[in-house]
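Tokens help. Consider this.
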Amino acid sequence: MHTEQTLMSTTPLNSNVQIPVLGFGVYQIDKANTTDTCLLAISAGYRHIDTAQIYHNEEEVGAALQQCGLPREDIFITTKIRYPRIGKGKTYLRALQSIQKIDPRENGYVDLFLIHSPYALKPKERKELWLALETLHEEGRIKAVGVSNYMPEHLEEMKEYATIWPPAVNQILLHPWTQQRETVDYCNKHGIVLQAFSPLAKGLELQEPRVAQIAEKVGKSLAQVLIRYCLQKGWVTLVKSEKEERIKQNVDVFDFSISEDDMALLDHFDRPGKPTRF
């Protein structure tokens, strides 16, 4: 179990990049609030922010990066591209625009760039996205490249065209009720770091009495227990809140551990089946 971590702990990626084990997600945070919320998160100790083109707040994340007063290399930024653009080189340019929004310096970069989802895309479109990201990686504008919402069949398909394989990361829905064990096993076998998004199950399961019992036992909130569960599974964990109190509470998960018995109990909550496609 990953019990000796701190907020500053990182996990190595296959591109000689270190990714912080706890990240702050900005999905569904309004553009007008994104910069201030990210600054609150950085002030609370987060050093990893996760955004995406379809969140429409990359520029606001970039503003926080520039305003926080920390060196660029101290903040790990992830973004994602959802769809290719028709026309030679246009997908590359669309990805480059994200980098320029986040880090507008001449040699600005993002630490991790993901394909957002394989769904609603043809194999040739997935290929086009990946090859564009590989080019930006070669140019030093992306430190690591990965995927999101990919299942084993999508990862296997990549072998036909990818120069960089395996991808550094697969960001998927993970929490006690959705464990995606086939995908997790595949990624573990091939050295692909797993990122868990929505570790709190979007709040739907926070009334589970057995989680409440564990929370009472360790003196933490239900949300803190679910975040800790993901960290102890070895997953890079992404949490989101716009409330300052919750932002601070969600990083306070490194001074306790969940027992092996209680981890096993949480493991048994799994509801096998394909997760909602994104």
Q: What stands out?
A: The first strand starts at residue 10 and ends at 12. The mean pLDDT is 95. Residues 177 and 269 are 5 Å apart (CA to CA).
